[in-house]
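Ops channel
N.P.: pipeline sanity check, posting one input/output pair.
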């Protein structure tokens, strides 16, 4: 190789190296994020487990430490305490941003509620939603998404939001089953798949899906801690890129998704297959926030009295990190 050829080769090599630096993901391969889930099993939340299981987040330079909580309030507490970097929960947790929690919503993960339902014990005489008037309904925590949905049910049925009794029993399946067996609640608003599984085991049954009384909303959202926003925005971009890719993978791989979800949640293939068909359409394709969903969310803040004043919703979320 003569000098001219050598110089040309070196120029090409240096140019390619510079290009590699420019296009390489900013999140390093050893970037670790602790992700706290408001629920172990909820459909809008579980994709983070699936993406990690099949290696998608690792492709984007991330290692995830996934932690499960029994409600959005506990997830927000962990974010506030600095115990987690990312919160994976419901849109109603955006009210905590308005209250000053050191976090911001970064992705709308789901837009409707086909994954939630009203379940009753197996021996309940209730046949329709109207039969729950005056009954005690279990919710995950006070001021949570399920708490708001219980009030929306009362309004839809004409009872009035003040004429419904709710009890916080968490969203862990063991707690709901125990409450059913002990007769502590007459019904529960929770994961539809759980109630489908209860029917197989003669413990409970799905009375009606939440979509019978509530339409579009920000049903699922990801949150980033203020500390992470300030220290590593590249990791947030990598996370959302991985999340959107995960949802694309889920849409294209029903059999594999059903199997993974069954392993994670302990439900039968029949339950997971039915749940997959029911919930697939709710997932985001872009992580961007829906205007109608934001409007419904704003109404939920008023219904639940989650904020003292009506917040500027645009300050509670950002689309700066979407792919």
């Amino acid at each position: 190789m003569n000098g001219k050829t050598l110089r040309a080769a070196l120029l090409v090599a240096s140019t390619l190296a510079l290009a590699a630096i420019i296009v390489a993901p900013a999140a390093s391969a050893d970037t670790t994020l602790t992700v706290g889930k408001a629920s172990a099993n909820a459909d809008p939340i579980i994709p983070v487990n699936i993406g990690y299981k099949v290696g998608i987040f690792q492709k984007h330079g991330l290692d995830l430490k996934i932690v499960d909580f029994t409600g959005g309030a506990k997830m927000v507490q962990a974010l506030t305490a600095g115990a987690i970097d990312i919160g994976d929960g419901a849109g109603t947790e955006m009210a905590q941003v308005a209250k000053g929690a050191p976090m911001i919503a970064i992705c709308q993960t789901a837009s409707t509620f086909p994954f939630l339902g009203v379940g009753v014990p197996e021996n309940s005489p209730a046949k329709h939603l109207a039969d729950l008037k005056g009954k005690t309904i279990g919710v995950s925590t006070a001021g949570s998404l399920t708490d708001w949905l219980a009030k929306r049910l009362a309004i839809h049925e004409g009872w009035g939001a003040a004429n419904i009794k709710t009890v916080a029993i968490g969203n862990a399946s063991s707690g709901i089953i125990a409450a059913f067996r002990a007769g502590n609640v007459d019904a529960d608003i929770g994961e539809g798949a759980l109630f489908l599984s209860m029917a197989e085991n003669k413990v409970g049954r799905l009375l009606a899906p939440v979509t019978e009384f509530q339409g579009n909303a920000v049903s699922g959202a990801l949150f980033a801690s203020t500390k992470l926003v300030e220290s590593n925005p590249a990791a947030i971009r990598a996370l959302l890129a991985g999340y959107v890719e995960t949802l694309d993978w889920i849409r294209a791989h029903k059999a594999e998704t059903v199997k993974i979800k069954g392993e994670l949640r302990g439900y039968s293939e029949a339950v997971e297959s039915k749940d997959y068909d029911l919930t697939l359409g709710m997932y985001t394709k872009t992580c961007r926030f829906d205007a109608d969903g934001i409007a419904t969310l704003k109404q939920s803040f008023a219904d639940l009295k989650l904020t003292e004043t009506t917040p500027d919703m645009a300050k509670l979320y950002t689309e700066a990190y979407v792919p």
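N.P.: looks fine end to end. Residues 1-26 have pLDDT under 50 and may be disordered.
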